[in-house]
Write a structure and sequence with these properties.
Arc Repressor Mutant, subunit A; single chain; 70% helix
């Protein structure tokens, strides 16, 4: 049965050298793409031979949806990568990853390439550098701060970081605040405000571990709870302020009741008075202290 099917199957296969429909489709697709790819590759090589100024002129003359314009933009971005890295370098002390800052810097570079007019200036780098730095500063101002910080303090913080790095190289040590204020030309108050702004640049989770040891404590463990003894001390200090306003016998009754833990009957027996009399004196003393403390609270809240 196998031998009878063999010739039939072989007869259905095309002779060698004749393409199948799939092969014809692949060849047709490749043939149709070849003319489109050739000008693109040739265009890239041609653009690569142009100077920056010539490339910028060509870039501005091309329509926005042109493949040649995109290729020219990619070449300009590649040529000015070092400028972006130079602008990012002064922010390497920040908690923001360098790769993220590079992406922000490229956004500034692209804006500079699109807006720069060679007829009004001869240096793209001179125009692009403040655009890149401004984009990075805007990123820090709008995206990174955990609490609101005045813009002047943010900008002074960035200047302070650069000045601190420069002075460290010059002096061989960390500069003092006085040396930083002299270099930056700012007051000590402004410098301290910038240093405080640096502390709120990033936030830490309360679940953050305190060390890399096994089963470390968390940051929340370092935060104190309400201290009941402290609250009691504050209350007792308030009572002591008005303690001398009470008669001596009422002071003694309060002391025996709340410090000696004696019952009213035991206090009466000790003082030679009835339990009912002790109850009236105790109530009068407590009402007096309560009224004075409530008056103080009302005055503080008004």
């Amino acid at each position: 049965m196998g031998s009878s099917l063999g010739p039939s199957v072989r007869a259905q296969q095309p002779p060698s050298g004749i393409p199948t429909p799939r092969t014809e489709m692949t060849m047709t697709k490749a043939t149709s793409l070849a003319p489109a790819l050739a000008p693109t590759l040739g265009c890239r090589a041609e653009l690569d031979r142009l100077s920056d100024d010539e490339l910028l002129v060509r870039f501005r003359a091309l329509p926005r949806d042109s493949h040649e314009r995109s290729a020219a933009c990619e070449l300009l971005v590649a040529r000015y990568e070092r400028l972006v890295r130079s602008c990012v370098r002064q922010y390497r002390g920040s908690p923001e990853p360098v790769e993220d800052l590079m992406q922000v810097g490229y956004v500034g570079l692209l804006k500079a390439i699109n807006n720069f007019d060679p007829s009004f200036g001869s240096s793209l780098s001179a125009y692009a550098a403040p655009c890149i730095s401004g984009e990075i500063k805007r990123h820090f101002r709008d995206k990174r701060w955990q609490v609101h910080v005045r813009r002047s303090a943010q900008e002074l913080l960035l200047s302070m970081r650069k000045a601190s790095e420069d002075l460290t190289h010059q002096l061989g040590r960390q500069p003092t605040n006085a040396e930083l204020t002299e270099r930056l030309g700012v007051s000590m108050e402004d410098l301290l405000e910038a240093q405080q702004a640096d502390m709120v640049f990033s936030a830490y989770s309360l679940d953050a571990p305190l060390s890399d040891h096994e089963d470390p404590g968390q940051l929340s463990d370092m935060l104190g709870d309400e201290d009941a003894d402290l609250e009691r001390s504050i209350d007792m200090e308030a009572v002591a302020t008005h303690w001398d306003e009470l008669p001596e016998r009422e002071q003694k009754i309060l002391t025996m009741r709340f410090y000696g833990n004696l019952t009213q009957a035991e206090i009466g027996a000790s003082l030679g008075i009835s339990q009912m009399h002790v109850s009236r004196l105790l109530s009068r003393a407590l009402n007096h202290l309560r009224s004075r403390l409530l008056d103080v609270d009302a005055a503080l809240t008004s």
